[in-house]
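Would you mind giving me a polypeptide sequence along with per-residue structure tokens?
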Amino acid sequence: MLRFLSPAVVVGLCLSAAAADDTQLEVKAGDKFPDVPLPAAQIDKVKKGAEALSVADLKGKVVVVFFYPKALTKGCTVESCGFRDVAADFPADAVVLGASADDKPLQQKFIAEHKLPFPLLCDTELKLAKELGVLTPNGKMTRRVTFVVGRDGKVAKVYEKVDPAGHPKEVLAFVKGLQK
């Protein structure tokens, strides 16, 4: 069938198929971070009385958004507890947010069991994950990817290859470097 289509139509079909791939990273350093408000467990830590939270709500702060596949699983617990253990070392104008496709009750349980001091975004409809291109190939969970968003709302750094154990300290060092 493709041999009967014009080259322009074939190219258009290929481009639209690539754009629809939610497993391919859609933002890079220098891009504006998408404004997608999401419910969050422990939202009052950064936005009092709110029902939803967006990185755009935190403009003027450095925001770390670390995506993980599933709350209360081994690698996700290691990474989240690593961020917990260095949370106090982040500069005063930095905010750490975890994010996954988990619902609020599961995120609350994750926070309670591991004493996580930061909000966990509940991207249950995968809206933000799709805009960022951080879905797993099965499209049901988020990949382990971290974004550091600068005070201007633009992505300062993207970590696509994440080692759950050492990653939080790596991100901390980068954020501290932004202060200079």
User: Anything to note?
Assistant: The radius of gyration is 17 Å. The beta strands are 40-41, 62-67, 94-100, 120-122, 146-149, 155-159.
